[in-house]
Amino acid sequence: MPDLDALLLARIQFAFTVSFHFIFPSFSIGLASYLMVLEGLWLKTGRQRYLDLFRFWLKIFAVAFVMGVVSGIVMSYEFGTNWAVFSDRAGPVIGPLMAYEVLTAFFLEAGFLGVMLFGMNRVGKGLHFAATCMVALGTFISAFWILSVNSWMQTPAGYEIAANGQFLPGPSWLAIIFNPSFPFRLLHTVTAAYLTTAFVVGGVGAWHLLRNRTDRHARTMFSMAMWMAAIVAPVQIVLGDIHGLNTLEHQPAKVMAMEGHFQSHPDGAPLILFGIPDSEAGTVRFAVEIPKASSLILKHDPDAPLAGLDTVPQQDRPPVGIVFWSFRIMVGIGLAMLGMGLWSLLARMRGRLYDSPLLHRAALVMSPAGFVAVIAGWITTEVGRQPWTVYGLMRTAESASPLAAPAVASSLAAFVVVYFAVFGAGVWYILRLMAGGVQSGESGPDAGVAGPIRTAGITPAAQATSSGSPRSEQEVAP
Question: What is the recorded membrane topology of this protein (predicted)?
């Protein structure tokens, strides 16, 4: 790879690892809340169906949660290996925020996860439900702190710069935590996680409905997922619009790249639906446009002027092509989710929610759409921030460790092999669990275990007890 320097390789490595990682939290955040709802419905109604679904999705949650934790640990090390300069300069601000995530969210999840997974037959129903709620709360708190860190890098606030160039916290940590883009990014991202989970659950329900339309568990899954799509998808579109207006205020160059506006438009900017951005020529070739629609969306006035990338120095412009298309993928999937929600509402009103194979096939096709959307949204956010690590203050080229390209390339190659092997196997196992379906009266992870699990197997004392008579020392001696 003669044309790839250490900086580009380090960026590719972080993008690769964080893309893999992002898949699992975007699923487990929503799935933890779904498990909380299922257990709450079981406690309220006493219906075995909800308990069966809870135990079915609990096994899937356990695998996804573990893979999310493992894949996230790697990125912490990358800050020290590939981005040591950034860690040194920004560490006094982002270090405590990431520590808060461990001290609050991770400890909360770790403390109650064991009760949630293995305590159904060992603690009271109320305590077990409380543990499930705490795990769901922990996933949200984890997202809270991580998104606060990322948002501070996008819209830095509440900092001071020391003589040695380090970013130091100012008099109020609240200004750092609740920086200008954080509330909007938090709502938009968490809602995306809920939608991602809803479409996975809907896809699994649709798969089993296509095999057996009378499957009660599949009907419940599909109905709940489609209610979520119908209600949350339009909310997500509104939140995305509000988040976009906030981005226009604080990161206008990112919005210019998203919209493909190379030139300023003093009398109203068009909305470019599709085209091929050409950064060298400063234009979008073969553009399909709606006149003045971009000004209407961003300024709520079709004649409002909008600045273009011609007002931004060349060295401060983000890569337009990547941001332009990732944004359209995200928006397109969001509109498709809205369409699925409306379609399911129509089918529900006609009494054909469980008897429409075409709807079920569409839901099955859409089941991975949430993952694609969140990755596309992350690419839009992070690539659109370039060439800055801390927006407007610290460039990405200034943030990397002084490493040679072969060192980064070798670790990148190792990550690619290990990630596809380990996490590919994990995803395959999750898909096998999903395809197996829900069994009525399905046992939980701890069912049938009378006492603590011993890694040594059956102990001599247990053998003596089970035989009904004590055994001599010679009989039990190894």
Answer: Multi-pass membrane protein
